[in-house]
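Format notes (please read before filing issues)

Several people have asked whether sequences and structure tokens are stored in separate files. They are not. Every record keeps both together, in the order shown below: the sequence lines, then the token lines. Line labels are part of the format and must not be stripped during preprocessing.
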Amino acid sequence: MNEPANDPCLLDYAIISDPYPLYAATAANPTSTVHIVVSNGGGDTVYCREIIFSLPEGDLAQSLVVTGGGDGDGSVEGWTVEQLQKGASTVLPSGEYASFRVKPPADGTKVEGSGITITLRNLHIGTQPGTARVEIRETATKEVTQWPVNPRYRTLEITKFPPPELPFVGNFRAEPCDVELGKDKDSNKVRLMWDGPTDINYTVLYGAGAKRADDQKEDVVRGREWWGTVTRDTVFRLEYTAGGSTHYLTTGVTVANPRLTGLTVDGSASIAQDLTVGRDADVTGSLEATEDIATHGKFLDDKGTPLRGDLT
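Then the structure lines:
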């Protein structure tokens, strides 16, 4: 909608998407967030009554959103954001638009040095790449006794780029990233999470120190999380195929008081506290102890004969 007769806006506006850049929607990523920064770049105080942002709606390249919906909030306490219904009794553009009204805490609130960020979330972005023009209608003045008859007007351009051939997959992490076995009944549990689309298969790989949870049916998942348990330090690898090739991410979990199935020590080993041996212990060299050694079994010599009596 072109409104050349309207005066230009008194406030400055900038728009950016989150994530950035903004991609045309896919089935895996249908929604996005838009931030609009409002500030006063001039030397005069501006008094604001309301601002209306209208997002072009439809299935064309110049449409920002496919349908209405979404919600918003302001970064400054007291500023409110509401979506306007079709036919609202206010100045709105003709055609298909999703419009949001932003109101300050009080009529004629001063906008001076501090900027205001308006956040519109859960917007259903259009599927066609192209540039959309967000329309702004600003009811503001420099003289609190003289308000304009019609709202001031301008547009902001934002571009929807074609979706990338390779989807973003990242932030592969484990929570918690370090555990202490025996601390409590859930101390061995870990949760793997990552960011990425939900329409591709992810495979979680790991060694013998981990296993998937009983309700985690398999290690190939389409979600963005995996549950399991660990008994010792474990490196996890996330694999997925995109763009005709396989990609990898890794993360790890460290384990205090690990449980081992075997251990070979080539050098010296010092044990500061108790040592409990559940089965046979073979000593090929000398055994020295500064305290008593108790056994529920037998000490055998090199011929297999049990040792008895005082061994000092």
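For reference, the curators noted about this record: The radius of gyration is 33 Å. The chain has no helices and 19 strands.
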